[in-house]
Amino acid sequence: MAKEFAAFPLNLVCFPGETQNLHIFEPRYRSLIQDCRDRGISFILVPFIDGKSFHLGTEMHLDHIEKEYPDGKFDVRVKAVGLVKISRLTQRMGDKTYPGVKATPLSWNMETDYEKCEILMGLIKELYATLNISNTKVPEAHDLRVHQVVHKLGLSISEELELISLANEVERLDYLIKHLTSFIPTIKRAEKLKVMAALNGHFKNINPKHLY
Fold first, then answer.
1. b/e burial code for range 32-58 (CB count within 10 A of at least 16 → b)
2. What's the rounded Cα separation, in Å, for the pair 156 and 181?
3. What H or E segment, with its residue span, contains residue 80?
4. What residue ranges do the domains of the chain occupy?
5. Which residues pair with residue 61 across a beta bridge?
6. For 137-156, how does the pLDDT look when each residue is reduced to its tens digit (9 = 90+)?
7. Which helix or strand (DSSP H or E) is residue 20 part of?
8. Domain 3-106 -> CATH class
9. pLDDT tens-digit profile of 117-132?
10. Distance between CA 47 and CA 51 in Å, rounded?
């Protein structure tokens, strides 16, 4: 059944289970954070991409106010606690200055497949080795959930929107495995091209082929 929630449209896709750090500076959203703090309400993060809102969003709880500035701005940490289907987005929620939505909670399955987690972790390590990335922390395979790595794998916004439409964790694992299986060879070709381009102009030591 649809319920009314406060809304926060952002150029962002947030998956249930993950946390986000937000700097809140607009007066209407400062008012929203104050209501989250004082009244214990949640809000719906509405992906707003290319001027259009997406039909799915995530319910967000205020986890912690990291800093409240003298001018009323906030640095906050919020956590995504569930997926919703959005039926209506309005510019104002009743007498509030911030937007509102009518939204219906949806299921979000977190039961995983550990063999597929191992496959995904192997691909992630291969990707990071190819790109010489060593300072990005990723969980062990037995602790892995898609929301922990989804923004670190080169997905476009449209691909993240496709992924969040999959309510089953195993389907989300399959999606990322397929993505990396095709993405990694592309990255390897690009890295090889960088090396070849860097050698342009160098004197090459090439062994001649003898005809006789």
1. bbebbeeeeebbbbbbbbeeebbebbb
2. 16
3. strand 74-90
4. 3-106, 114-198
5. 79
6. 888 889 999 999 999 999 99
7. strand 19-24
8. mainly beta
9. 999 999 999 999 999 9
10. 10
